[in-house]
Specification:
By secondary structure, the chain is an alpha+beta fold. It is built from three helices and eight strands.
Length: 157
C-alpha cells in the first residue's frame, strides 16, 4: 500500500478506521489520537500561527501580531457526541489570549471552529477541582456569543 498518494484527510480517515478496529478488539480504549497534533497543524496553517514546542505551557501558537493561541480539538463519533474540550490548565494565569476550538465529525471534517477570547472562556468554562482545570463544552450559548468568532470558513473540506 502506497500512502504517499493519499491526501492528509484520507490518511486520518485510514487511521480512524484502524483505531476503530483496535477498539473493537479492545486493544485501545479511545479514538482521539492524533487529533491534538492535527488540530494544531490545521489551525496554525489556517490562521498563520507559528507553532510552539510541545513543552510550551499555556498556548500552542503565536500570531504575527503576538497573540498567544491555545488550540483544542474534539472529534465527535456516534458513540461519543460530547463536545467537551480537553482540560484548560492554569486559566487564571492568563497564559493565552485566545482559544481556538475545533469540533470534527468522525471523518475529520470540521463541524465548528471558533476563536474565543480568554475572558470569554472564563465566563463559560467551569472549574473542576478533581482535575485542577477549567472545562469548556463547545455548545449552546457560547457559540452564539458575539465575542466568539467563527473561523470555520478558513478550513476547506
Amino acid at each position: 500500500m502506497n500512502l504517499n498518494n493519499l491526501e492528509i484527510k484520507e490518511l486520518l480517515q485510514l487511521q480512524a478506521a484502524v483505531t476503530d478496529e483496535l477498539k473493537a478488539r479492545e486493544v485501545v480504549r479511545t479514538k482521539n489520537n492524533p487529533l491534538g497534533d492535527y488540530t494544531e497543524w490545521l489551525v496554525a496553517n489556517a490562521l498563520g500561527l507559528e507553532l510552539q514546542s510541545n513543552s510550551k505551557t499555556g498556548y500552542d501558537g503565536i500570531s504575527k501580531s503576538g497573540l498567544r493561541v491555545q488550540i483544542k480539538g474534539r472529534r465527535i463519533t456516534p458513540e461519543n457526541k460530547s463536545r467537551q474540550l480537553s482540560a484548560i490548565r492554569k486559566y487564571d494565569e492568563k497564559d493565552f489570549d485566545e482559544l481556538a476550538a475545533v469540533i470534527f465529525n468522525e471523518h475529520f471534517e470540521v463541524i465548528d471552529a471558533v476563536l474565543i477570547p480568554h475572558e470569554v472562556v472564563g465566563e463559560y468554562a467551569s472549574y473542576r477541582e478533581h482535575v485542577n482545570a477549567h472545562i469548556l463544552i463547545l455548545k449552546g450559548p457560547i457559540l452564539n456569543d458575539p465575542r466568539v468568532n467563527s473561523i470555520k470558513h478558513k478550513f476547506s473540506s
